[in-house]
């Protein structure tokens, strides 16, 4: 039995240490995703806290969930949209098509240091030039490694729409970065 399963089993049993380890494992990725939707540090932190509160409330069901990461992202996305709806009257009937301004920021890593700030800014500019919806799908599929079906379910769109957004994003990035071979070497692990 691998460590991850043991932690989930302990979490299901109500072990607070397992819950803290679970939070530490997932919080950074969830925070980045929430921040990319909400664009405010405090709001993103609040929504992530709400997600972990939901996890604790429903911990007995965790052992039955096949894809916990996908489940967490669905809760986070729904809570983020609810937060936006609650925060402003104009978001009352918010859908995936109306979520604008999704930003895509790579988490600093060793590879980024090797690329250099100038190359990284070229990469970020290329990603920023993509339409918001395409950036959102690119992030979920290529960085967070969710399946097309999970992304479709999460965003309430069809698998074909996920595929279309991803194809468009990849095509535009290839056009924009055609002379930036180093950037593509960096991106290869993410885009395979």
Structural class determined from secondary elements? mainly alpha
Low-confidence stretches: 89-94, 106-112
Roughly what percent helix? 55-70%
Using the 3D structure, state the CATH architecture of the largest domain.
Orthogonal Bundle
Please state the average pLDDT score: 76
CATH-level-4 superfamily name of the largest domain: RNA polymerase sigma factor, region 2, helix turn helix motif
Number of domains: 2
CATH first level of the largest domain = Mainly Alpha
Radius of gyration, Cα only, in angstroms? Answer: 18 Å
What is the approximate shape?
elongated
How can the largest sheet be summarized?
A: none
- Work out the helix count: 10
CATH topology of the largest domain: Rna Polymerase Sigma Factor, Chain: A
Note the beta-strand portion.
under 5%
SSE order: HHHHHHHHHH
Number-wise, the strands total 0
Distance between the termini: 29 Å
Task: Please tell me about this protein's structure.
With 192 residues, this protein is mainly α. It folds into 2 domains: 8-87, RNA polymerase sigma factor, region 2, helix turn helix motif (Rna Polymerase Sigma Factor, Chain: A, Orthogonal Bundle); 113-190, Arc Repressor Mutant, subunit A, CATH 1.10.10. The protein has 10 helices and no strands. Helix 4 (68-87) runs parallel beside helix 8 and helix 8 packs across helix 9. 26% of the residues are buried.
Short descriptors:
single chain, Arc Repressor Mutant, subunit A, 0% strand, mainly alpha, 192 residues, Rna Polymerase Sigma Factor, Chain: A, 10 helices
Short overview:
By secondary structure, this protein is an all-alpha fold. It has helices spanning about 5-10, 15-40, 40-55, 70-85, 110-115, 115-130, 130-145, 150-155, 160-175, 180-185.
